From TrEMBL:
The active site is at C84. It holds the Pfam family Peptidase_C2. This is Calpain catalytic domain-containing protein. Transmembrane segments: none annotated. It comes from Artemia franciscana.
Length: 135
């Protein structure tokens, strides 16, 4: 499947925030000030039903991976946050690797020397590409 779409070409390869974070990663990993590691970031109007521990990927497993081989529709698992709409869209993106790499650029890694505590994603919203970074 080949998608010829002029809108795909409008997305900036790497946003400035990602470049800055990668250049300063040796100081400390990126932390998103608009989405702090606090309960209120996850639970807008409710209190969490149990204590939330915020961990970096290397604290969860010894060898975290962003994408192994190619992305597959079987890679996603819905958690407890009610994010099925996002996971459904991501699952459909795995059908077209060119489009998937435009949304989630493949030059991102957890490898030593590469990981800066930040991953870059692009979303098409209201007729334009929106860059978002996640720590």
């Amino acid at each position: 499947m080949n998608i010829q779409d002029p809108y795909l070409e409008k997305a900036d390869p790497v946003p400035r925030t990602t470049k800055k974070a990668k250049n300063t990663a040796w100081l400390k990993p990126f932390e998103d000030s608009s989405f702090p590691a606090e309960d209120f970031s996850l639970f807008y109007s409710k209190r969490p039903f149990r204590r939330v521990r915020w961990l970096r990927p290397h604290k969860i497993c010894s060898d975290p991976q962003f994408v192994v081989n190619d992305a597959s529709r079987f890679d996603n698992q819905q958690g407890e946050l009610g994010d099925c709409w996002l996971l459904a869209a991501m699952t459909n993106l795995t059908i077209n690797t060119v489009l998937f790499k435009r949304i989630a650029p493949d030059d991102q890694s957890f490898d030593d020397g590469e990981y800066a505590g930040i991953f870059h994603f692009r979303f098409w919203q209201y007729g334009q590409w929106v860059d978002d970074v996640i720590d």
